[in-house]
Amino acid sequence: MGLVVTGISQNGDISAIEAALKEAGLPLDPIQLIGPDDSTQGAASRTGIMEGGLMTGGGQGTGVPGVTSGVPTAGGFGTHYFRNETLSDRLGDLEIPDDEVENYVDALQAGRSVVAYFAKAENIDTVTTIFRASGLAKIKTF
């Protein structure tokens, strides 16, 4: 049996969960909230960056033909974003199996939040009950 209880919050407000945990005599420091803003934190623009990390574009008179004209991509030139590996790592810290991480990423990108609680074996049922009573969806234990 796992020791991390997770759920999906529609609005990221965990005040009712925190109150219920306190009332149950459980500490608040094992609770984690990953919000939709966390899913884009660290996303870096590739505009002006060529392979190898060479900065290109936009300098005052520093243009070099063939280098400063943009970033070639399959769709042409422009801004592209790459996946935030830190988010996957953070979800991985919640012991979410690799085959389920994408479901949580999808929820975050849809504007929802992931709530997790690092429980002890003796309080998993209490935490799960609190999560259900607080309206979290897709409650799972890992």
Which short descriptors sum up this protein?
alpha+beta; 142 residues; single chain; 4-stranded antiparallel beta sheet
Question: Any overview of this molecule?
Answer:
- This protein is an alpha+beta fold and 142 residues long.
- The protein has four helices and four strands; from the N terminus they run βαβααβαβ.
- The chain has a four-stranded antiparallel beta sheet, with helices on both faces.
- It starts with a strand and ends with a strand.
Structural class: alpha+beta
Please count the helical segments: 4
* Beta-strand percentage range: 5-15%
Q: How much is the radius of gyration in Å?
A: 21 Å
Poorly predicted regions are 41-59, 69-83
What is the residue-mean pLDDT, rounded to a whole number? 76
Share of residues in helices: 25-40%
Strand arrangement, major sheet: 2-3-1-4
| Run of helices and strands | EHEHHEHE
* Oligomeric state, counting identical vs distinct chains: single chain
Span of the ends, CA to CA: 7 Å
Give me the count of strands. Answer: 4
Shape: globular
Specify the biggest β-sheet. Answer: 4 strands, antiparallel
Topology (elements, then pairings):
Elements lengths: L3 E6 L5 H9 L7 E4 L50 H9 L4 H12 L3 E6 L5 H10 L3 E5 L1
Antiparallel strand pairs: 1-3, 1-4, 2-3
Briefly, what is this?
By secondary structure, this protein is α+β, with helices and mostly antiparallel strands.
